[in-house]
Amino acid sequence: MKTWLSLLSFGLLSMSMAHADIQKLEQNLKTNFPDMPAKSVNSTPVKDIYEVFMGGRIVYTNDEGRYFFVGSLIDLPAQKNLTEERTQVLSAIDVKQLPLKQAIKQVKGKGERVIYLFSDPDCPYCHKLEAELAKIDNLTIYLFMFPLTSLHPEAERISRQVWCSKKPYQTWTDYTLNKKQPTGKDSCTNPIQDNIALAEKLEITGTPTLFLQDGSRIPGGMSAEDLEKRLAEIKK
Fold it and tell me: Buried b vs exposed e over 99-112: b needs ≥16 C-beta within 10 Å?
C-alpha cells in the first residue's frame, strides 16, 4: 500500500511540475514574443522539451522559450513522425463553421465525399491539383478562391471574373486547366475579399490548401491516388 501511495504521489508531483514548467514557458513566450502568440503549449516525450504551436507550425523549446528547434520529432522505433501527427491535430478546423456561401460548389457524381479547397487561379501548384481532382469522382468540392496578390497581381481580378460568370466552376477549370481567359465582367458582388480575410483567420499561408470532412488540413498539392486514400480513411 505504501509503495502504491508513493508512486501515486510521485506521479501527481511530476504532473504538477510539468504543468508549472508549461506555465513558465507560456509566460516567457508572452514576454519574449508579444506579437506572435502561441496557440498551444504542450509537453513532449522528450524530457524538458516542449511543443509550441505558433504561426501555423510546431516548434520546440525548453521552458525558457528563447532557443527553438524547427523540424520533425521522430519516434524511430515506432516509425512515427510525431510532429506530423500533432500538426494534423492542431491545424484542423471545424468545417461546419465555414461560410459555404463564399465558395463555388461543384458536385461530381454522387458527391458523397467532400473537400474544402482554398486556391489561387494563378498558382501553378493549384493548376496541378486541379488536374488531379479531374480524375476523382463522387466528390463535392467547395472552392474558396483565395488570390495571393503579392505573388500573382492579376489573380484577384480573375477570381472576380470567375465568380461573376454564369458557370463559375467551369470557368475556373477552363482557366486553370486549359489557360482559357475569363471574358466576363468582374464588378458583381463577390466574396473574394471575405475569402482573403477567412484564409488569414484560418492561418492559411499558401495555396492550394484543402480541408477534409473531419477538418484535417492538407497544405500543398496531392496526387489523385493519395487523396483517394485520405478520403477513404475519412469515410471509415
Answer: eeebbbebeeeeee
